[in-house]
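Training component of the fellowship. As part of building independent skills, the fellow (R.M.) carried out the full modelling exercise for a liganded target. The chosen ligand was zinc ion. The inputs are recorded below so that the supervisory panel can assess the work.
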Amino acid sequence: MSSVEDYSQLLQRAIDAFASLPGVGHKSAMRLALSLLRQEKSFTYRISDALRNLVDGIQYCAKCHNISDEEICRICSDETRDPHTLCVVESVRDVMAIERTGQYQGLYHVLGGVISPMDGVGPQDLFLHDLPTRIQEEGIKEVILALSTTMEGETTNFYIYRLLKDVEVKITTIAQGIAIGDELEYADDLTLGRSILQRIDFQESLKR
Ligand code: ZN
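Fellow's submitted model of the complex:
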């Protein structure tokens, strides 16, 4: 016998499932599957229940598009936060990264990506269309652009700047401190925290 499939197609299927996850190679997938077989069944049921509940129950906040167990997320419904400052980020992971710094008390707007013609992602694929109305309806006074300093991030920043040109709101960016080409979520907490506190006017940033 040469392959796992010769022993058990069930095991092979579990290995294939693990191996389809990001960052999990075939060897790790096999190790995971075999280690589950060594556990009590209830252990594996807990994992599979958690995953099933996750995909069935997870929602995205109707206001900011952050991940949420309810229609409105915990950050949006937290009355102690500053309701007039809105931080625009690419993904849920960026919300988590900024929250980890403990330096930001405002609200978020999760775009769900950045404009990237190479990957076929246009403005219509992102949560951009509701941004101007949201700013007006909620009386937002400052929009902080906190996207990655990649070409796609810069393009998206500029698109939002144009999109909001008739909206009365201050637009700032955290570009300072985050190195060019950096993905936001990989910035260390201190750098990210500082760059939010020392944000600069977006229009000024264009002159640099
Ligand atoms: Zn929310």
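The panel noted the following from the submitted structure. The two ends are 65 Å apart (CA to CA). DSSP finds nine helices and seven strands in the chain.
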